[in-house]
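Title: Prediction job returns without error message
Component: structure pipeline
Severity: low
Priority: P3
Assignee: unassigned

Description:
Job completed but the reporter wants confirmation the result is attached to the right record. Sequence as submitted:
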Amino acid sequence: AGVKAVLDRLNVVLARHLRNGRRVNVGELGTFRLNFGSQGVVGSDDFNTGLIREPRVRFLPGKALRTMKSLTSFERIGPETDGPDSGGGEEERPGEL
């Protein structure tokens, strides 16, 4: 319950600071910031705020998460087959012992 309360409050604080254009550093977890852009125009007179795309929240992970990400590997696993050693047999049904 305590962790959920902290995360709920973090959400409120993040929103307030990001809305004011600040970066929010959450210690070893990482940093949050707003990212936005717009369509290009030829001259500054052609620009208006309607050309700005919806802002996105960007998360930059801290060192521990970056390290974990770089050490992650993947391998291909084939489909499971029903062979003689696949553990088939009698089904277990909930409530039957």
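Comment from assignee: result matches the submitted record. The longest helix spans residues 2-19.
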